[in-house]
Structure formats: C-alpha cells, structure tokens
Specification:
- By secondary structure, the chain is an alpha+beta fold.
- Helix content is 36%, strand content 28%.
- The strands form 4 sheets. The protein has a 6-stranded antiparallel beta sheet with strand order 3-2-1-6-5-4. A 5-stranded antiparallel beta sheet has the order 8-7-11-10-9, with helices on both faces. Strands 12-21-20-17-18 form a 5-stranded antiparallel beta sheet, covered by helices on one side.
Length: 574
Amino acid sequence: MDDPSSAGSVRSRLELQAIQELLESQRRRVTAYADLRRTGSPAAPRHSAAPHVPPSLPPSGQEVLDALPVPALLLSPVLGEDGELQDARYLRHNPLAADDAAARFPPGTVPPWTAPASLFERFPGLARTAVPRMLTDALRHGTPQGPETVQWVANTHSGPVRIHDEVRIAPCGDHFLLTWERGNRLRMAAAAQRLVRTCWAEWNLSDHGVEPSRGFRHVLGLADDAPLPGLFDLAAAATPDSLPALYQTLYDVILRKRTTECELRLRGSGNRVFRMVAEPVRIAPGSLVWAMRAVLIDVTTDRRRREAAQRSALEAHREHERADTVAEIADTLREAVLPHFQDELDAYGLEAAAVYRPDARGAGVGGDWYKARRLPDGRLLIALGDARGHGLEAVTLMAKLRYALAGLAYTQEPVERLTQWLNEVACGDGNESTATAIIARYHPERALLRWTCAGHPRPVLLRDGRATQLPTPDEGPGLTLGVLPGTDYAATATPLEVGDIVLMYSDGLTERRPADPDQDTKRFLRASEHSFQEAAPGVGHVGLQDYIERLVTRLDGPHRTDDATLLALRRIGT
C-alpha cells in the first residue's frame, strides 16, 4: 500500500493523524481491558482433592484416525531397492472417508475395503496427480505437504466422476496421514470473490493483525506476497476525498459500536472505488470493540458507468437546450425571409402557394428557401433552393443566397447570369457552402417562364391533370452552387397556359434511402396526378394551397430525413 507521507495536503495529513489516534486509543483500551481481566479476576475456588484415578491406556491408531474432523487415510510407504518410494499401501480409513466416498460415487462403484491394498491400484486416477510427489517429499524431508489442489477422474459404471480436493499429507511415525477437504468449496469461494470483486477481512484492534479472505489481495490489486494492509494502511492509500467518510466509519464501528458503511477510493489500485460495510466485533455483549470486520465490494465499474451516464445526461441536456436555441433563432430568421403568399401575384396573372415542412429529427432546422419578388422591369423573380446541411449554418447560408439573389436580380441580367453570380457567392463563402437551386424569371407579357437548374430537381408542369418534368437545357443541368467557380449555366424557356401549375420542390419531399433520383421523380409525378384526380385544385389561392397541402401529406412520412418545401405557381390569366 502507499506510504502515509504521500497523503498530500495539510488537511489530508490531519485526517490521517486523526485516524491514527483513533486506532491507537482503541488499542490502548483493549490492552487495558485484557490486563484487567488477567490481574483483576477473582481467585479460582478451592476444590477438595479429587479421588485417585488409575491412568488409562493411550488411544489406538484407529481411534485417533476416527477422531479427525476431516476424511483421512492411513498409508504406509512401499520402497524400492534404491530406497525411493514406489507405492503406498492403503491401511485403513476413518468413517468420514467412507461417508465421503458414499456421497461421491454411485453405489457399488467402490468395492468395500477389507484389507491393506495399493493406493494407486485401488484409485488409479491418483497416480497422475500431485499425490505421488507429495508422498515422496514427505518421505524425504519428514515434513507435512500441502494443501495442494488435486483433481482426478474416477471411472464408474454410470460415467466418470470428477474429484477436486485440497489434499494434505503428513508423516506419522513410519506411516503417512493423507487428509482432504472438498476443494470446490474453497475454489468456488475464491472464484466468487474474483467474479464479483468482493473480499472481506477482520482487523484486530489490539495488535493490528489481519485475518483476510482468500481473494483479499487480488480484489485490492495487491501482489500475492504483499503485506496485508492494516486499517491505517488503507487510510494512507485512500484518496483525500475518502478520508472523512473512512474516519466516520471507524468512529461509528469502534466507539458507537454500530454497523455502517462508506465509499473508499484507493490510489494504489488504479484509483478503484470500494464500498466498505463494517461491523464491530466485541469480546462479550456490551463490552468494548476488540476487532472490526468488513466486506469490501469493488464498485469501480458501476461508479464509472454512473458517472458516464450523468455526463451523457448533462451533455444531452445542454445539446437539447442548444438545439432549442438554434431552432428558435432559425425559426425567427426563416419567418423573416420566407414569404407568405395571398394575392400578391395576381397582377402578374399568377397565383402562388407554398408548404414548408421542417425536419423533426434535425431540430426542425434546415436550409430550404424560396422567393417570389417583383422586379422593376415588370417581371417576376421566382426561386427555390436547398442549402447544404442542417442547423443554423444551413439557415445562415440560405439567407445569404436569398438576399444575394434579391440584389443581383435588380441588374435585369438574364437568369443564366444571375445563377452564375450566385455560384460565385457560394464559392466565396467556403468549402462547405454548397446549395442547389432553381432560379427563374416569369415574363407576364408572354406568359413565359425562363429558368435554370443548379443541381436541383427540375420543376414539374401539371397541365389538365397530367404531370411531366420540365426538360433539361440542351447543354445539360448545371452544377451545384459553390462547387466550382466560373461555371456557366443555361436556361430553359417554358410557356404557360391558363390553368397550368408549375411545381418546384426540394429533394427532402421525395428522397428515400437508398437514394434513387429517378424513382423519386416518378413518385412525385404519380402523387401529383393522384392528388389532382382526388380533387382538382379549387379556385383562388385557397384552392391552390389546399391542393399542395394534400400533395405534401401524400408524399411525407417517417422516412423523411430532411426538411421539405413545395412551391406552386398557377397561371390564371394575362
């Protein structure tokens, strides 16, 4: 265990000193109590002389064997010409040995013992265990051997029987005494301590002696030959935050004579955490405490899991608060930049309606945006885009692109040029600032929609209940905004008839996993036609809004992993 001098702070040293004084005071009390009992006890009463009893004969060898509290065999060595042990003769056994055999082996397996016989002929499995070596060492050195774990298999008519014992062999005159105890009890106790990392010990308060359980050192992380730690050694190895609780536990057990518990963190064992449950051991009921008995349970894994769970819960709470804040900011920003259509576009011969569905799994924040704005030249700017990512960053990029487009549109340049400039804005914002978009200008005098596509799903034309995707320009679809500076974009001109509906949408409305853009487009076309067949869009803005609400409901579901936007334009006249 660690040296007491490494306790650290002044406060820790004072707490260690208090623990040392508490233990030393109790040692003095126990010593004084023992002295008083030795010198102050009343004199033994005088008895009349006992009648003369003739001396009895000493017990026989069998009587001594029968008095042993464990199963035992009496063996005699069989030596070869070189004086080395060759065999051992099984001379006799005690009743406990017979009871043990009857409990382990099926009836009739072991023939009754009637006369001395070879130990290894009677039990052949023992010849391949440690028993022959233990017999040889006992013969050579004249000293007891063991305990050692001996495992062997006895073949019986009902199958093999596994024997697992703790065996001792001791010289007994010219013979050997072989005793055993069932080793599985000791082994299971040690295994239980190791598996649940629990040990126990009893500390004598008069001489600081320790009587530990078999797995005591292992559970505490000590070497097999390390000295057993006393109570003060445990205190010296404890972390400073454990000392107040340990002192209170010792005080309650020693002076208040109570069973109590505390948490103990030991620095020398990898900073492991133990739950110590301690009780007093008294000399007699009501007398002072002579020793302290305690169970130590290693709860390090549980504590670390609990601490990790608390940290995770705290982090989740902070993340939730952050997500709420981001969502609130993003909603405010979105409300400020996304238009709400009524009849503003009637003067252009158009009706407009829009539906936006946030991504619930992404804190309700995404990068979809749309715009419809009158231009000084009497035309109409229409756009729908999807900024990369989620959260406040996506909303910020969305706002940048939207406001940039609004300013650039006043140059009266064609949509191809506007899209090229918008791409330069996204490229200049950073490597992660990418977005897809449809940029369009409506010419009311010609009922013509000119539009460009920058990596976005192409618009869909709904005419007389039939949905078709608008064709790509001859030059092909344009690159996503923010990917490559200097990219050129081509426009497509789409004339509109009265009653035509143009649907622009973000991929969050149709995308499934795994992604298949062609299937996504077909799904959108089918849903558009089915919703039209179910109920054709009614008159006015309200009728158009009802139609796209039904269309979004048909396409939406738990599969969606992104925000979704649908913008509809219907030509109502010139």
